[in-house]
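Appendix C: a fully annotated inverse folding record. The material below is reproduced so that readers can follow the format used throughout the book. The structure is listed first as tokens, followed by the designed sequence.
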């Protein structure tokens, strides 16, 4: 005779709660008090209870999915944006689905898959430049989409003005009295990604050029991380007989590497060379890094909120929100240093 499988009623009896409470734990756990939820989970583990297929299907209907698609998932800036997204979705019955993009063909394949299968209820596109064909497919589908760092007509967007951020860094360094500017950034090798480094460099260079200070090519490095190329270029700049008196880096991670390299050759920051980063990662405060803040957590929160608003009201007009940029003055570059 086959062994009887435990039911939701067995779980309720073992946990000392009602079957309705067990159902809520399975389908809407945020609505159940922690103490009762723990009792139910303990009973489920003790009895080795497995919900029936229809109960699982019901739970899946309760938890919708928001997709996040981006050209990278290991960079600290992505993790802070993702944290902002998760802070909005947490407790609202939405699961996050991450799509890793390594090539244009993979990006197009993911868009086709999402269009054909509707696997997610909303999509956040981080730092990507989609072709007209892919944008058209998303528009025809009517899927709630929010682009972050890209301004795409007809869609909700959270826009970061990278070029303006570069100008802001230059203006700040100029106000501190620096007149021999340098720049270090990671080259944008992904043609489908927003060229943030190049845009930041463009704004930085333009500000100084307008004041009759062209960037000396000896003080500029746009290279790859791979193979230690970027680190080698940083050392090249630092070991020159004539060096810049300030450097703007396209990210805080690069700024941290620059600070380490400067210390290794006996240079003091900001006395010998001032450094300003970009992003305002959490670690920037820990290393006293002056940087341009782009409110990463806030941009993630805004993107998630706009997707949820679009799910509720698909007929509303698209909104574009510009993330305010600001210089966070710390020890690596400051007025009067």
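Designed amino acids, in order:
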């Amino acid at each position: 005779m086959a062994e009887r499988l435990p039911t939701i009623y067995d779980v309720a009896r073992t946990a000392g709660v009602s079957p309705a409470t067990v159902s809520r734990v399975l389908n809407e756990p945020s609505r159940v008090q922690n103490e009762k939820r723990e009792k139910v989970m303990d009973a489920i583990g003790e009895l080795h209870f497995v919900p029936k297929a229809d109960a699982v299907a019901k739970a899946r209907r309760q938890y919708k999915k928001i997709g996040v698609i981006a050209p990278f998932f290991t960079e600290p800036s992505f993790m802070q944006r993702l944290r902002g997204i998760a802070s909005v979705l947490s407790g609202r019955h939405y699961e996050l689905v991450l799509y890793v993009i390594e090539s244009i063909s993979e990006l197009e394949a993911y868009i086709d898959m999402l269009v054909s299968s509707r696997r997610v209820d909303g999509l956040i596109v981080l730092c990507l430049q989609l072709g007209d064909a892919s944008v058209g497919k998303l528009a025809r589908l009517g899927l709630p989409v929010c682009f972050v760092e890209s301004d795409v007509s007809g869609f909700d967007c959270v826009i970061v003005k990278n070029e303006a951020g570069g100008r802001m860094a230059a203006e700040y360094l100029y106000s501190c009295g620096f007149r021999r500017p340098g720049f270090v950034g990671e080259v944008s090798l992904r043609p489908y990604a927003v060229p943030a480094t190049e845009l930041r460099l463009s704004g930085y260079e333009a500000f100084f050029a307008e004041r009759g200070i062209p960037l000396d090519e000896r003080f500029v490095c746009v290279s790859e991380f791979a193979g230690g190329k970027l680190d080698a270029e940083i050392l090249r700049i630092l070991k020159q007989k004539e060096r810049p008196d300030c450097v703007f880096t396209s990210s805080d991670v690069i700024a941290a590497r620059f600070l380490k390299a400067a210390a290794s050759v006996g240079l003091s920051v900001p006395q010998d060379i001032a450094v300003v980063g970009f992003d305002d990662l959490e670690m920037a405060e820990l290393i006293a890094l002056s940087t341009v803040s782009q409110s990463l957590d806030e941009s993630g929160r805004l993107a998630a909120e706009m997707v949820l608003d679009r799910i509720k009201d698909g007929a509303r007009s698209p909104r574009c929100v510009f993330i305010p940029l600001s210089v966070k003055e710390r020890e690596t570059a400051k007025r009067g240093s």
